[in-house]
Amino acid sequence: MILGIDLGTSMVKAAMFSRDGECIGVASRKSSPTALGGGRIEQDFEEIVTAVSEVVREVCADCEPPEAIGITGQSDGLWLLDETGHGVRPAVSWLDDRGNPYLQRWIDDGTFRAVFRRNANAIFPGSHAPLMAALKDGDPEALMASHTASYLKDGILQRLTGARVTDASDASLPFLDIVKRDYDPEILKMLGLSDLRRLLSPVMPAPGQAFSLNAEGARLTGLPEGIPVHAGPFDLVACAMGAGVRKVGDGLIIIGTTLACEVMVDRVDTQSDPVGMTLCMPEEGRWIRAMPATVGTATLDWVLDLVGATHADVETLLAQSRPGANGVTALPFFSATGERAPFVDVKARGQLCGLNTATTRADLVMGVCESVAYAARHCIEAAGLTGRVLVCGGGANSQTWSQMVADVLQRPLYIAPRPEVGARGAAIAAMNVAGISYDADAWAEPEGVIEPRRETAARYEAGFAQYLDTVEAARGLWNRPAVKEQGLLCPAI
């Protein structure tokens, strides 16, 4: 048995897998970020620790102890810990927008572009650099009291094993030299954060390390001491591994809270437009080129709440409209932090157009879902897709929405093995590090394929072209001086 733990933004899960890749059981607990108002969103680290304890105990209750434990989860955000791995203050979520003005300053003065030219990673508001800068001004006492500016899964690893390390996939953005896999002092200097270098955990060498479950970890999980535990890679890379992205050019679309579109690459491109992430994979010479857009199921949640519907109504509502949404079009940029892929604009805002008195609830849902599908194509093509493309995430559970994505791409869409693609990837990474043999093909066999419909090709090709034109027009409006001054960020709602 191999145990995979996935520390999501709103859910903590543990999944037990047999040696041949079959998922034996899953346990989960909600762990929602707390909105404090004014764009501030934080999470309680001890709540996550408790949730990990509960899900591991539940999923292991009727099984033999696992041979290895792999941990993945949300990256970014700022988890300030003391020397024992306990929180110094509530963690600042990656959804928090207090880093926005710092990022905007770096964009305006050229620092943002200069950092990308060194490590092919575009800083976004919820990553370590802007949040550390914000706390340096707003809560310097917390930084002074901290031993580690951690990532969530690394904090859990420390509580289970005592190890203070991080994975190169997490550290890739924003401070890492992603070829040498070590921190770049010049990037820290550019960002004015050299004095906080002491807070950064050592980066594990490729392909990573396993650490033994210690007495405290055994107490938390109910498992015997000595089990090898591996934390890394973080969820974007873990999902690629769990879905079966193994060839250069293959891609994955994760329709989750974030619409994460990613492609495996074998070179680092620092000269392209400064956007997206280039994340170290466990093996040297391979990276995931990721375009994690802030649109995704959160955008669907917004429109469902607007029309008084739930996720259980999605298939019915989509069936009541038709491709093209009876003229309704949308820009899905409803995040308070703007957009980070395949372009960066902290002022990006959502838009609904083409409404009239005949517009239905179903048309609104269809229009928004289509806009997310267009965003997926925009992102996956920008990431460099040349091979096959897989899909996973909560949104992929909608057959109609998945079909829509295949139609917009006009490519076959392979369904990643379910359930728990991220935890599956964490388990694979743990087996690799622990030296456990397994059948890689069996672990990543697609569950099926969705073929694109030819009859929708022309409509969606035209719709995608219109989407791109609308994005470019809106970007000009978002950044007009009068719009900035008056706070009128969207010309149409």
Automatic annotation (TrEMBL):
Task: Name the family the entry cites.
Answer: Belongs to the FGGY kinase family.
Keyword terms of this UniProt record: Kinase, Transferase
- Give an example GO biological process: carbohydrate metabolic process
Q: Where is the Carbohydrate kinase FGGY N-terminal domain?
A: 1-242
InterPro entries membership: ATPase_NBD, Carb_kinase_FGGY, FGGY_C, FGGY_Carb_Kinase, FGGY_N
Q: Which GO terms describe its molecular function?
A: kinase activity
Organism listed in the record: Kangsaoukella pontilimi
The keyword Cell membrane is annotated on this UniProt entry? no
What is the name listed in the Swiss-Prot or TrEMBL entry for this protein? Carbohydrate kinase
Domain Carbohydrate kinase FGGY C-terminal residue range list: 285-431
List the SUPFAM superfamilies hit by this protein, alphabetically.
Actin-like ATPase domain (SSF53067)
